[in-house]
UniProtKB/TrEMBL annotation:
Residues 52-208 form the HhH-GPD domain. It holds the Pfam family HhH-GPD. Gene3D superfamilies: 1.10.1670.40, Hypothetical protein, domain 2. Coiled coil: none annotated. It catalyses: Hydrolysis of alkylated DNA, releasing 3-methyladenine, 3-methylguanine, 7-methylguanine and 7-methyladenine. The keyword Amino-acid biosynthesis does not apply. Its EC number is 3.2.2.21. This is DNA-3-methyladenine glycosylase II. Keywords: DNA damage, DNA repair. It comes from Aquincola tertiaricarbonis. InterPro entries: Alkylbase_DNA_Glycosylase/TA (IPR051912), DNA_glycosylase (IPR011257), HhH-GPD_domain (IPR003265). The lineage of its organism: Bacteria, Pseudomonadati, Pseudomonadota, Betaproteobacteria, Burkholderiales.
């Protein structure tokens, strides 16, 4: 199933800005050449995948996702909320989903189907307003909402302070491997504004050269 891949229009401007402002970014950015953040799929599918992948390995998550997606009567690149709501709980469990993840996926589908999340308005809403809508869905916490802002909506200025990879990247690249507090991480991140998502992406790359995709 081929899906369109989108990259941010602001990426080159962000790289120039960060390279001027930050000595670590000046060294890191050239190492990854043309690599950049990519977004694919639609909002509901992206969030459903994030729920399926919670607390299991990437490989296991892909296996469960493939079985879950195969339950749809009309397989496509996009998952329809109504189609998820129509599935029997036992059928979803048989695809390898835990009882809790079944509850989360059904709640997600209900939020989208009922219009409780304002997908069409997200373009005009600020980051915190979108996070507030998303964390009202069972199984979606602030970290998942921030990953969604970065990877799906491609918001340029998200600093996910609950992300282990970000804290580790700041520790290794700015503090010679010493542990860093959230306050220290925030202070480093403030210097990256208005492109904190881009700097975060490069710090993730410094730990693992393979780009993460959602």
């Amino acid at each position: 199933m081929a899906t369109a891949i989108v990259t941010p229009t602001y990426w080159d401007d962000a790289c120039r800005h960060l390279s001027k402002r930050d000595r670590v970014m000046r060294k890191l950015i050239p190492k990854f050449g043309e690599g950049r953040l990519q977004s694919r799929g639609d909002a509901f599918t992206t969030l459903a995948r994030s729920i399926v992948g919670q607390q299991i390995s990437v490989k296991a998550a892909q296996s469960v996702w493939d079985k879950f997606a195969a339950l749809m009567s009309e397989p496509s690149t996009r998952l329809a909320p109504a189609a998820v709501m129509a599935l029997e709980v036992d059928t979803m469990r048989a695809a390898g989903l835990s009882a809790r993840k079944v509850e989360y996926l059904r709640d997600l589908a209900q939020h989208f189907d009922s219009g409780a999340v304002h997908v069409q308005q997200w373009h005009d809403m600020d980051d915190e307003a979108i996070i507030e809508e998303l964390v009202a869905i069972r199984g979606i916490g602030r970290w998942t909402a921030e990953m969604f802002l970065i990877f799906h909506l491609m918001r340029p200025n998200v600093l996910p302070l609950d992300d282990v990879g970000l804290l580790k990247g700041i520790s290794l690249n700015y503090f010679s491997g010493e542990p860093v507090s959230r306050a220290e991480a925030r202070e480093v991140g403030d210097a990256w504004a208005p492109y904190r998502s881009v700097a975060t992406w490069y710090l993730w790359r410094s730990l693992d050269p393979l780009p993460v995709e959602y």
